[in-house]
Structures are given as structure tokens and as C-alpha cells.
Amino acid sequence: MDRRRNVLTLAIVLTMLVFDSRQSVSQESESRAAEALFEQFETVFQAKTSLLASSHTRDFVRVPFVILRGGLEALDSHESKQVLDNSSAVLVGTKNYLPPKGLGTVRSIFCYVVVFGEPIELGLERHFRQSVASAAGMPVWNWSAKISEFGENDPRPSSLYASQLGQSYLLVSNDLQELRNLAGRLIDSSSGDVTRVLAGIPEWRDLSQRTFWGYRRYRHTNVPSVDAAGMRNVTLAAEALWFYADWEHHAGVLGLRASQADDGTADQINATKTIPPFKRLAPGVWQTVVPLTFENRDPDPMFGVAWLFGFGAVI
Questions:
Q1: Are residue 107 and residue 219 in the same domain, yes or no?
Q2: How many separate domains does the chain show?
Q3: Is residue 6 part of a domain?
Q4: What is the mean pLDDT of residues 236-249?
Q5: pTM, whole model, 2 decimals?
Q6: Sign of the C-alpha dihedral, residues 269, 270, 272, 276?
Q7: Which one of 155, 174, 199 terminates a domain?
């Protein structure tokens, strides 16, 4: 009996060690993906795929990832499910925000990074005759998808590019060069510690523990559309905006940081009354709490949060 108990205990311990090892690898891969995206894009969002697959998840969690799902479903009805079923997290980087033509969502240059929990071969090549380019030595595939990227008055299909980077990542973008650049960054970061960029983000330690978060490092030059970028009330001193879901308290936490202690960005956003008002936490730092439970508010404060991150919609 003791021997059987010992064998069972050993099996449990080994299972836990394997699970912890896989979880550690996934977290490291997610951090590398986040760092690569931060180097290249203005706004980055991440969600655990368990959230995206849940029928109880509110729409605001899915908003940053709608184009990915729509694009994969246009390629193959089973592709989206296969990707999510075998991944631990999905990240997206966005920049260069433009308004839709007519009604629709704000559009941008984007690149998704799907992080696989375990090594997987998707076999994307079965959908194509040949690749259109290569990224970090891997083939890049291109297809069209009708996902209303440009607005109701511009029904042209989106042109999407995808590449599986080894067995760890799937990249999907609407810009070939951005995808290739990101693939190069991921390859370069795979042999070193993920510290340089993430160490410069004071909020990273807290964000990295969350199942859903977004972070924006404001770019104040060469802004194609101030309104589409959600920057109408943002001063030049504003440095960063972040959001994460606190599921235990059914709330979202929205933070703002500026280089000046008395910066007026928070007051100007508060004046719009689209989100619960920011309150000052420390010199140059403000925070507000947004309810995640549906309360039939009009307008929904999460609509205002989406605009601030470049995910607004003209309706």
C-alpha cells in the first residue's frame, strides 16, 4: 500500500512540475511577444484565450481581437477554433489610427501574436498555392477577408498576412512589413532576457499578472487623426494609459500617467463624462474604476475606454 501511495504521489508531483514548466514557458513567450509589440506599436492588448472562448465574457474583452477571429474564420471555418484551442494567450499591437468611412470601428495598422501553450503545426499552407514572402525564414501567407475593416462606405475586403513562427507563435497582420519586422524582433529576443523594454514600464509587474490588459504609450508626433486616435483631450505631457480587468471585484482599472504633476489630461477627459472620473493617486498619476457588470448605462463607459485606446466606433 505504501509503495502504491508513493508511486501515486510521485506521479502527482511530476504532473505538477510539467504543468508549472509549461506555464512558465508560456508566460515567458507572452512576455517576449509583449516586448516585441511594445517596441513597434503604440497600443498593446493581451487576453488569455480562455477568456475569449468563454460565453460569459463581455464584448469589451473581445473588441481588440475581433479582426483576428473574423480573418481566420474567413480563411477556414475551423481555423479560428483550432488556433484558440491550442493557445495560451493572444496579443495585438496597433498604431496609426484612422476613422472609418461612414459607420464602423476605428481602423489601424495592427499585428496579432497568438502564443501557443504547446508546440503545434497549424498547416496554414494547405489553404494557399504559394507563400507571398518570408518572415524570419518562415513563409508568409496572404488572403482577403470581408470583415468591415474600413467602414460601411468602404466595403473592400481586408488583405491579411499570416506566418507561423516556429511552433510558438502565429502572427497575423494587415501590413506585410510590420509582420516581418515583428517576426525579426521575436527571433532576436528568443535568445536573451526580456527586460529592456518591459523594465521601462512601471506598471508591467502588475499588468503581467492579469488575464486581460491593455497599455498605450502615447505617440504625439505624426498622428493621422487625433479624433480616431482618442487623443482630442490628451496633452503633450501624457505618457501612458493602461487598463486591466479585476474580475474579483467586477471592475476595470484605468490608469493615466503624465510627465507633469499637474497635467490637465485627466481633467479634460473627465469633462467629457464618458467614463467615471479620474482621481489623482500621486503626482502625475491618475486612476478610475469602471464597472464591468452590465448596468444598461447610456453611454456604456467601456465605449469611452475603447476610444481612449484607439478602438472607438462610429455608430
A1: no
A2: 2
A3: no
A4: 95
A5: 0.89
A6: positive
A7: 199
156 and 238 part of one domain: no
Which of 178, 199, 220 terminates a domain? The answer is: 199
Q: Rounded to an integer, what distance in angstroms lies between the CA atom of residue 157 and that of residue 140?
A: 19
> Closest by alpha carbon to 197, among 30, 25, 26, 37?
37
What do you get for the CA distance between the two ends of the chain, in Å?
A: 68
- 283 or 297: whose pLDDT is higher? 283
Where is pLDDT greater, at 291 or 220?
220
Hey, what's the cell of 190? 528568443
| Owning domain of residue 233 | 209-314
Condensed to tens digits (0 to 9), the pLDDT of residues 46-96 reads: 999 988 877 556 778 889 999 999 999 998 877 788 888 899 999 999 999
Between the ranges 61-70, 119-128, 187-196, 234-243, where is the mean pLDDT highest?
234-243
Q: How many CA atoms lie within 13 A of 303 on its CB side?
A: 13
Q: What are the cell numbers at 19? A: 504543468
Give the H/E segment covering residue 185. helix 176-189
- Per DSSP bridges, beta strands 169-173 and 212-217 are unpaired
Residues 244 and 161 in one domain: no
